[in-house]
Structures are given as structure tokens and as C-alpha cells.
Design a protein that fits this description.
The protein is α/β, with parallel strands linked by helices. Helix content is about 15%, strand content about 15%. Helix 2 packs across helix 3 and helix 7 packs parallel to helix 9. The longest helix is centred in the N-terminal third of the chain and has 14 residues.
């Protein structure tokens, strides 16, 4: 679960820590947890797991969905019968459809086989897996006898018995045409169930085990044989979830029953030990995988099997397995917690595959150079190693060398005649590192990245790489140096004064000499300082015919990539990024395969081609920070277009007149286009789900018609001060989110809004011209979860109907300084305790109204379940609010703003036992803090724009300091000074802030380190979200996905969230 949030591997530390982290991630959220294919029948394990789930979140509404193939699991989990859903088995017709598809695809099949095929389908027991496997085993087989042999096999009689399905699946293995295929299939059982296997990795393992012997009548390499074997196993449906990346790299999984089948085929020669539990290993084991899900561990073994060929381990097992490893062919410690390799590994003469990727190893030992049969050596992500291993290129049988740390580039790579995989080559001036090392490596395949091309002297030297002879390379990255120094220029023979002209000429010459083979599918050119593209790209006939992906990145002086790319008929994605000198764009006419165009940070580019009408497969168009761009090409006819994203194009005046043919368009985003004056017609966009329009100051209207956008879910419009009208939203029954902010000339909300009955979030902020809200809006919004109406200075009253919004979880009505009345239904509803409309309310922001609003309901109506409250004063009614909240015992966060006459916090403040965050802002008269002496030491106190209190809370000397010094996190004047200091209670030492971050000595951050904290916890201060008057700093463009609705100008923005051990931030304190 935790890994699903972080999108990275998580090391298991303890159950309590995992639960704590999940609590942080799921705070105030419902979750749906899906446990697929559960086999656990141990009630004690389930009770332990259920206890963890109850600790993660107590919010009502979370659900757990479980799939299983046994009723006993459901019984173990005490599933109620009404919550149990039994899936029906497939019909015979369904099974026949699967068999027919797997055997013949879309081609025709002999009619005489249909009856036999239907009989076989009837024997599959309604199981899709069986039908799939049997159909795969008959792939492209039109022999009647073969079909009959399966139909009449006696094994079908065991279908209903235990293990019967496996015996039926064995039929497919018996039909494998080559005996070695069974060995390859059986070896896959060394991986745990549901493991994602890479095709290249599998082939390298099969090769190391000796399973890939080239056919005598062919000239195939072992890798080619492995490719055929993989395809054969796939065609037999023994692999599932087969995925291919754009360059041909393939991954797959095995169904768990197929995994069981692989284990049965291996005849108990494969063993997986989980969590490193020590035990004796059976003598017949040849393939062993030791897995740990609990971080660092060691395992003590008994006698190691003498026939052990394969050892995978995530933990340190070598200290107890120093004997009987001489026959091992495959050794993988990928991700293991080891920092060195023992010397006896040098005696493993049969070793053909070695993987030490992602370990803590600090150096590659010399004895590796004695492993003369080594075929594959992988040391990816080994960043603790500082120097390469000398002599590695003497291993003449080495075929695959995989690393990504450029410090580890071995010298003399050109001496490896069998080399097939070299993903990275780093050019240097020393012998053995020059680009000529690539000259004879014509068997290279897959991906090749060449770095430091600035170290190549001239065109002739570049031509020495002979890239045009390497026809198996699919993806090529050519990376020049990031910076040219005077020393580098002199080293290359250029005069110090030659400057940019020589740099440009040098790069152009080098790139000209690096012509690759026309089989290339992907080309990336990075940090190139030439002005134009090489002739082989622009003039060589058919060079681009196979090109699918082309990228130019950080090429600051590049002016053109040619006039015509029409020969790149297979091109799917074109990316041009940070090419600030780019002035012209090629003609894209005829690129019917093009799916993605991404252009960013090309400041001088004025147009993007002339015609995209033939790019009928185009799905995404992304243009960012192209300030010189005046117009976009005609987008008419692009029926496959799904996403348009335009951001930071300061001179763009229009984005086309008509998008009506873009019927697949799902997302339309236009940001930071202050010159944009017109918006295209959006009629007919029935697939549109999201519209974002931000910072388009001259835009006066948004299209003409949205009535056909029946799938629209999100509409946000921010900082469009010229906007005067909205299209009619009538009939948008799918709309869930509507944010409108900083639209000062907008006089009314869009018509038809009351018909948007699915609306869950409605935010209206900083719309000073808005005089009223539609009267029928709120009664229809029964699904509304978040309502925010703030900083609307022209608003004098609220609409009726708020009591109908019974699903509200967050309500913000604040800083509408001309608001003088509230509707009668709201007054009546709030006059009784716990009104229905607030039954789910967790967060409330209220106040900042006109002083003419004299009567306001007592806040006693708020239910005690409220967790987050912000009170903003507005004269006498506002001042009274503070004494009306002492019943909110569940309150975790409280903000108090603009209470002008408040001199001391009420004594009952200490009764708010759940309070962890207290923010006080702009309370000019506040002096006394005695009431918070019982405030949690693990909490956070923030004081801002309170001049009297700031003086009295001065660290160590202020009269109120003793009242607050026990609190873990204290900020004083944080917003004013943007500086914080940390101190440790009962310790004279102070953590020093980096010199470049120190600003104001009066601001203070106090931290109590008396409690033990995690070693990895960091004390940080985040003021990246601070805003003044609700406006983001113009110099800091927010990331697309991080923008938030502008907030109160005088209110605190919560610069960071207080936690016991960690404060999220972008500033770090150092001891």
C-alpha cells in the first residue's frame, strides 16, 4: 500500500512505522483496497492484518475488495453472505471464442476443426486460463490429428480433482516443439509469483544456464535463439501481461497457476526461501532464490547443494555459503544489503551471469577479471564505487555489460568482440576511452548512450565510431558536454578567443561524423551547440524511414531541424525542449503516425509548422514557455487528439478557431497566455473531461457552447481578469469541480450551474465584480463536499439553499467584506446544535465580513467532530466567536486572524486536548499566552503580524516565553521575515541555519529534541507556498499540477505541516 503512494520500493522496517506512514498518507481520506487472488486461510494472519487496517484510518466509507478462488478464504475473513459475489464460469461459447482467437487470431480456420474445437471448449470447465493455454498450444496449427489428440486426451477426466487443472495445462507443455523450451519455462519459477520479468534478463539467464544452443544449420546468435524461445512461450500463453515499450523492450508476468506449473516441471529443482529463514536446502536444488521483505538480514544455511547452478539473494548469504559454489553459473545480488564481494567468488570458473546492481559495494574486486566465462555483468546504480575495474575488458566472452555510473566506464571496451549490450559509453581523451573504441562493436543492439561528445576532437575521429555499421541499435542518445571550458577548447585545439563560433563548428562537425544506421528507431541529441542538423538527417534518402522517436534537448543555438520531416512516416513522438535559439519548425505534413508533439522553452520560435491536418493519429500537443509563439497550426480534422496543453506562451493570441472535430479531446489546458484574446468553439467535444484556463488576462470569453461536453468533470479558471462571461453549463451532469478565481470583471456565474447536480467542489475567490450567486445553485448541489466563497468584495448576501448541502466536508465563507446578510434558511439551520448540513464537516473557515453584519449565529451549532477551524474577525460579532468554540474537543488545527481587541487567549484553550496546530495572525492587541501552557509539546505555534506578542515572546527573555517554550515548533514573524531558527530545549547548542538563508534574528523556530527521533528525519522549513495578497510570485512559475486556489491575503498559508519528527520543507537546518 505504501509503495502505491511513493511509486518506489519501500524497505520494511516495522509494522508500526508502516501503519504510521499510511496514516499520514490517508489522513481525511477514504480508500479502496483491492486484494487480488487471496489464498490465506490463516485466521490469525487475517486478524493481524485487519487490526492494521483499523489503525490506518477511522474514516467511515473505506472498503476492502477481495478476490479469491476458494470459499474457505471468504469464511476466514468472516465475509457476510450479502457481501459475497460468486463469479459465473465462462460458457462453452466463450471458451470456444478464446481458443479460436488464440489459435488463429483474425485469420480464417478450417471448418472441419470447428466441431473439434467446440468439444475441447466444453472440456475447459468454464475456465478462461485453460481455454487460453490450450488455444495457445494450437497456435497456427491446422492439423486435424493434433486437435483430436488434445480433445481425446484422458487428462480431461481429472479436471474436477485436486491438481486436475495443472495436469490439463501440462498438455500445452507436452506440445512444445523443442525440449529446451521446457527448461527455459521451468527456470522462470525461480522468480516469485506476480514478478515482472524482463525479456532481456530472461534470455541472459537462459544463455548462462546453457539452454540457448544455436541451431547448426543457422547462423543465429544465442540472443536470437532466446528471442525465438521467448516468442514461442508467449504464443503458448505461458506468459501474460506482456508489455512492449516503444523501442521493443518487453516485460511479462506468469499467472500463479502457470507458476505452479513451472515449479512442477522443474521437478523440485527450484526453491524460493522467503524472509531469509534459515534451513537446510534439499540436495537436489539447482536454482535458489533467497527473498527478504524485512530489510537487512542474514541467513545461516546447512550444506549447500553440490549441483547449485543459480543463486539469487536479497540478503548476505555468502558468509555461510563459501563452499560448493564452484558450479554456480548465475549469481545475482541485485538490491542486496552487501558492501563487498568475498574473494572466493574468483574461483567460480563457471560463472556466466553476475548482477550486483543497487548494492552498497564500494569497489569492484580484481578477481572479477578472472571469471573468463562471464557473459553478463550488471552493476547498475552502484554509485558508491568511485573508479572502474581495470582488466574487465580482458573477459572476451562478455556479451552484456550494464552500468549507468559514468565513473565506471572501463577502458578498452573495444576489445570485447562479442559485446551485444553497452547502454552507456563515456568518451574521454585517455587511451581506451576514445570514441574509436566503438569501431568494431558492430553487434551492439538495443540502446546506446554516448556521453561527453565534446571530448571528440574532429569529424574524422567521430567517424571512427562507425555508427552507420551498427544496424541492431534501436535507440541512440548523443550527449555533448553540458559546459565548454577554456581548457576543453584548448584540449580540442581551438584558440581561447575563438569563443562560441568554434564551439558551434566543433559540435556540427562531430554530429556530422556520427551518422547512425537507418534502422534506428529513436534518436536523442542533448547539449548540442550547433546551429543546424547534420546532412545525414536532412538529405540522406530514407534515413528517417524507421524513426519513431526524435528528441532535441538543451540545444541552445539550434536554429532549425530542417524544413521537411515528411519522410519520417513512422515518427510517433517529436520532442524539442530548451532549444532557445530555434527559429523555424519543419513541415509535418504527411506524418500520419505522429502521436505526440512536445515543445518547451523555445523562446524565439514563432510558429509550429503550417499544417497538422494529416497527423490524424496525433493524441497530445504540449507547448510550454515559448514566449515568441504567435499562433498554433490549424488543428481542424485531428479526430484522435486527446490532450492540448499550452503554457507560458506570452504572445499567443489564438489557439485555433475550431476544435469541433477533436471529438476525442479529453483535456484542454491553457496557462500563462496573457495575450490570448479568443478561445475556440468547444461545441461537439463530447469526450472533454477537463478544462484549465489560468493567467490569460485579455481573454474575454471561453468558447461559445459547452452544452455537448457531457463528460466534463473539471473546469478551473484563474487569474483571467478580462473575463466577462462564461458559456452556458446547462446539462453538464458530470461536472464535479468548478474553481473560479481572480476574475475581477466577471459579473455573474455561468448560467445552467444549478443543473450540475454532480458538483462536489465549488470555489469562488477574488471575483470582486461578482454581486450575487444564482438563487437555485445550492439546493441542487446535494453532492457538494467543498464550498469556498472568499474575497468577493462585491458580494452582499449569500444564496439560500446551503442547508441542502448535507455532504459538506469543507466550508469556507470568508473575507467578503461587503457581506451584510445571510439567508433565513441558513440562520434557522445554524440556530440548532449539529445541523444536518454540517454533519460531515471537518474544516470550516468563517469571518471577515462587513461590520454592518451585526447578527451572526452562535458557533455552538458546529458539531464537536470539527477538526480544522479558521476564525477571522470583523468587529464585535467576530470577536464573540472565540468564546463559542470551547466545545470543539476534536479540533486539531485552529487559526485566529484579525481579532483587533483580543489581549489574551481564553483560559479554556488548554482544554482543546487534540489541538496540534495554532496560528495567530494580525491580532494587534494580543499580549498574553498563559492559556496555552497545556498546549501539546508536539504541536506547532505560529505567530504573525502581532507586534506586541512578538516582543513578549522573544526567545529566552520575553515575559511570555516560558508559556510557550515547551512547544516543539514555534514560528514568530515567519511571514514577515521568511526566516526561522531552531533550538533544542535544555541544550545550549543551537542548530545553525545556512548563511544564505539567514535574514531576521527576531524570527524563531524552537524544536524539542528531547524525544528520540528517526535518524532520517529532517528539520525543514517550507516557505515556498507563502503568498502576499494571494498572488503568486511572478518569477516562480508553479508546476502544472501543484497550483492551488489563491488564499486569504492576511491569513497564514500554513508554510509547513507540523509533525513530531519531520516538517515538510525546502530549507534544511544543519547541526
Amino acid at each position: 500500500m505504501l509503495q502505491a503512494f511513493d511509486e518506489k520500493d519501500c524497505v520494511y522496517v516495522s509494522q508500526n512505522i508502516v501503519v504510521q506512514k499510511l496514516q499520514e498518507k490517508l489522513r481525511e481520506k477514504n480508500y479502496l483496497l483491492i486484494l487480488d487472488d487471496v489464498w490465506n486461510e490463516d485466521r490469525q494472519k487475517w486478524e493481524s492484518f485487519r487490526s492494521c487496517l483499523s489503525g490506518i484510518g477511522k474514516k467511515v466509507g473505506s472498503r476492502v475488495l477481495i478476490t479469491t478462488r476458494t470459499k474457505k478464504v471468504a469464511s476466514t475473513m468472516e465475509t457476510l453472505s450479502e457481501h459475497m459475489h460468486h463469479l459465473e464460469k465462462l460458457t462453452n461459447e466463450d471458451c470456444w471464442s478464446i481458443i479460436k482467437q488464440r489459435a488463429f487470431g483474425n485469420s480464417s480456420f478450417p471448418s472441419e476443426l470447428e466441431g473439434i474445437g467446440r468439444d475441447i471448449a466444453s472440456k475447459c470447465g468454464g475456465l478462461a486460463l485453460v481455454a487460453n493455454i490450450i488455444g495457445g498450444s494450437l497456435w497456427n496449427n491446422r492439423k486435424k490429428d493434433d486437435w483430436l489428440s488434445i480433445k481425446d486426451n484422458n487428462v480431461w477426466r481429472s479436471m474436477e480433482e485436486d491438481g486436475g487443472v495443472l495436469r490439463v495445462l501440462q498438455l500445452s507443455l507436452n506440445r512444445l516443439p523443442i525440449p529446451a523450451l521446457k527448461l527455459c519455462f521451468a527456470l522462470c519459477s525461480i522468480f516469485p509469483k506476480d514478478f515482472v520479468m524482463g525479456k532481456e534478463m530472461l534470455i541472459q539467464l537462459w544463455m548462462a544456464e546453457g539452454f540457448l544452443q544455436p541451431f547448426s544449420e543457422t547462423h543465429l546468435e544465442m540472443e536470437d535463439v532466446g528471442d525465438k524461445y521467448f516468442n514461442a512461450l508467449s504464443s503458448y500463453s505461458l506468459f501474460q501481461d506482456v508489455e512492449r515499450d516503444p523501442y521493443g523492450s518487453i516485460t511479462c508476468k506468469m499467472h500463479d497457476l502457470i507458476h505452479d506449473l513451472a515449479q512442477s516441471v522443474s521437478k523440485s529443482q527450484t526453491l524460493i526461501l522467503e524472509d531469509g529463514s534459515g534451513r537446510n536446502i534439499p540436495a537436489n536444488i539447482q536454482h535458489l532464490n533467497v527473498i527478504s521483505n524485512k530489510g537487512t538480514a542474514t541467513t545461516e544455511f546447512g550444506d549447500v547443494p553440490k549441483k547449485l547452478h543459480t543463486l539469487f539473494s536479497q540478503i548476505d548469504v555468502l558468509h555461510s555459503m563459501s563452499t560448493n559454489l564452484k558450479k554456480v553459473r548465475v549469481l545475482s545480488f541485485c538490491g542486496a544489503d552487501i558492501d563487498e564481494l568475498p574473494a572466493f567468488l574468483g574461483e567460480m570458473k563457471h560463472l556466466r551471469f553476475l548482477d550486483v546492481s543497487d548494492t552498497k559495494i564500494k569497489e569492484l574486486p580484481k578477481f572479477i577479471t578472472k571469471l573468463y566465462h562471464l557473459q553478463t555483468f550488471r552493476f547498475m546504480d552502484c554509485y558508491r564505487i568511485e573508479r572502474p575495474l581495470e582488466g574487465i575488458c580482458d573477459l572476451l566472452n562478455l556479451r552484456h555489460i550494464c552500468f549507468n555510473n559514468e565513473k565506471l566506464m572501463p577502458a578498452g571496451i573495444g576489445r570485447l568482440p562479442c559485446l551485444k549490450t553497452l547502454q552507456l559509453f563515456v568518451v574521454g581523451q585517455q587511451e581506451g576511452h576514445q570514441i574509436k573504441e566503438l569501431r568494431l562493436l558492430n553487434q551492439l543492439r538495443g540502446k546506446l548512450e554516448i556521453r561527453n561528445l565534446d571530448m571528440v576532437r574532429d569529424k574524422e575521429e567521430a567517424m571512427g565510431a562507425r555508427l552507420s555499421e551498427k544496424d541492431a541499435i534501436q535507440e541512440l542518445e548523443l550527449v555533448f558536454g553540458e559546459k565548454y571550458t577554456i581548457q576543453k577548447l584548448q584540449l580540442m585545439g581551438y584558440a581561447e578567443s575563438s569563443g562560441s563560433e568554434d564551439r558551434c563548428k566543433h559540435d556540427e562537425d562531430i554530429l556530422e561524423g556520427l551518422q547512425p544506421h537507418s534502422n534506428l528507431k529513436g534518436l536523442t541529441i542533448e547539449h548540442y551547440c550547433g546551429k543546424g542538423c547534420p546532412s545525414w538527417m536532412l538529405e540522406t534518402k530514407n534515413f528517417l524511414k524507421n524513426m519513431m522517436f526524435m528528441t532535441f534537448d538543451k540545444c541552445p543555438w539550434l536554429e532549425s531541424i530542417g524544413e521537411d520531416l515528411s519522410t519520417a512516416t513512422c515518427l510517433k513522438k517529436l520532442t524539442i525542449w530548451q532549444c532557445d535559439g530555434l527559429m523555424s519548425f519543419p513541415n509535418l505534413h504527411g506524418l500520419s503516425s505522429l502521436q505526440n508533439i512536445e515543445i518547451g522553452y523555445c523562446g524565439q520560435l514563432k510558429s509550429i509548422g503550417e499544417d497538422l491536418s494529416t497527423a490524424t493519429c496525433l493524441k497530445e500537443l504540449i507547448v510550454k514557455e515559448c514566449n515568441g509563439l504567435m499562433s498554433l497550426p490549424n488543428l481542424h480534422g485531428l479526430s484522435s487528439l486527446q490532450k492540448i496543453k499550452i503554457d507560458g506562451c506570452g504572445q499567443l493570441k489564438s489557439i485555433g478557431e475550431d476544435l469541433s472535430t477533436a471529438t476525442c479531446l479529453k483535456e484542454l489546458t491553457v496557462k500563462g497566455c496573457p495575450s490570448l484574446m479568443s478561445f475556440p468553439n468547444l461545441h461537439g467535444l463530447s469526450s472533454l473531461q477537463k478544462i484549465e484556463i489560468h493567467r490569460c488576462g485579455q481573454l474575454k470569453s471561453i468558447g461559445e457552447d459547452l452544452s455537448t461536453a457531457t463528460c466534463l468533470k473539471e473546469l478551473t479558471v484563474w487569474e483571467c481578469n478580462g473575463l466577462m462571461s462564461f458559456p452556458n453549463l446547462h446539462g453538464l451532469s458530470s461536472l464535479q469541480t468548478l474553481w473560479i478565481s481572480d476574475c475581477g470583471r466577471l459579473r455573474s456565474l455561468p448560467s445552467g450551474l444549478p443543473s450540475c447536480t454532480a458538483l462536489r467542489t465549488l470555489g469562488i475567490s477574488r471575483c470582486g465584480g461578482l454581486r450575487s450567486l444564482p438563487s437555485g445553485l445550492l439546493p441542487s448541489c446535494t453532492a457538494l463536499r467543498t464550498l469556498r466563497i472568499s474575497w468577493c468584495g462585491g458580494l452582499r448576501s449569500l444564496p439560500s439553499g446551503l442547508p441542502s448541502c448535507t455532504a459538506l466536508e469543507e466550508l469556507d465563507i470568508s473575507n467578503c467584506h461587503n457581506l451584510i446578510s445571510i439567508p433565513d434558511d441558513l440562520r434557522r439551520s445554524w440556530s440548532v446544535p449539529n445541523p444536518a448540513c454540517l454533519a460531515r464537516l471537518k474544516k470550516l473557515t468563517i469571518g471577515g465580513f462587513s461590520t454592518e453584519l451585526k447578527e451572526f449565529p452562535d458557533l455552538g451549532f458546529i458539531g464537536s467532530h470539527l477538526e480544522d477551524l479558521t476564525l477571522i474577525g470583523w468587529g464585535e460579532p467576530g470577536e464573540r466567536m472565540l468564546d463559542q468554540i470551547q466545545h470543539l474537543t476534536a479540533l486539531e488545527s485552529l487559526e485566529i486572524e484579525d481579532f483587533d481587541v483580543l489581549e489574551a487567549l481564553p483560559n479554556w484553550f488548554g482544554n482543546l486536548s487534540s489541538l496540534r496546530n495554532l496560528e495567530i495572525s494580525n491580532c494587534k492587541s494580543l499580549k498574553h499566552m498563559k492559556a496555552i501552557q497545556r498546549f501539546s509539546k508536539y504541536g506547532r505555534l505560529c505567530i504573525d503580524e502581532c507586534p506586541e506578542l512578538k516582543k513578549r515572546c522573544k526567545r529566552g527573555s520575553g515575559p511570555e516565553w516560558d508559556c510557550i517554550s515547551h512547544i516543539q515548533i514555534i514560528e514568530i514573524g515567519h511571514k514577515e521575515s521568511q526566516w526561522a531558527e531552531s533550538s533544542i530545549e535544555d541544550d545550549d547548542s543551537e542548530q545553525q541555519v545556512d548563511d544564505n538563508e539567514q535574514q531576521d534574528d527576531d524570527s524563531e523556530l524552537q524544536v524539542d529534541d528531547s524525544e528520540p527521533q528517526d535518524d532520517d528525519s529532517e528539520l525543514q522549513v517550507d516557505d515556498s507556498e507563502q503568498q502576499v495578497d494571494g498572488q503568486a510570485d511572478d518569477n516562480e512559475q508553479q508546476d502544472d499540477d501543484s497550483e492551488q486556489l489563491p488564499v486569504r491575503a492576511t491569513g497564514l498559508r500554513r508554510p509547513f505541516v507540523a509533525e513530531t519528527n519531520k516538517i515538510e520543507s525546502n530549507k534544511r537546518f544543519k547541526n
